[in-house]
Amino acid sequence: xxxxxxxxxxxxxxxxxxxxxxxxxxxxxxxxxxxxxxxxxxxxxxxxxxxxxxxxxxxxxxxxxxxxxxxxxxxxxxxxxxxxxxxxxxxxxxxxxxxxxxxxxxxxxxxxxxxx
DNA sequence: CTTTTGACTACGG
DNA sequence: TCCGTAGCCAAAA
Length: 116
Fold this sequence. Notes:
Blueprint: H1 5-13, E1 21-22, H2 23-29, H3 36-45, E2 56-57, H4 70-81, H5 93-96, H6 100-107
Parallel strand pairs: 1-2
Helix pairs in contact: 2-3
This protein binds a DNA duplex through helix 2, helix 3, strand 2 and helix 4.
């Protein structure tokens, strides 16, 4: 079974403000652990709209886009705008990585991307 | 059909 | 921590 675009975008849309998820994590949540690249390609191709694409980062919390590029700076700007510190192009995942299981544990099943 | 190309990852040195 | 390398996989050339 293939990794479906709609599903991936839906998952990205549920990442709470102030948290981030990795490409591999999103792929895994979509049921396709080895498709990190596919996720990146979708975000690059499938465009944006109100999608919180800036909350998706590479493994280890690194920003995948070129720091000097317009998109890269925009991502950093948005993240800082919602309270996520970005130092040397990276984010501390231990503090800001999205953890769906924990969210559900704290807020109960059926939680909908809220958070403060 | 084969090769190249990424918003990826894990692992070594 | 910072590269290079080697897997990875679907889409585009």
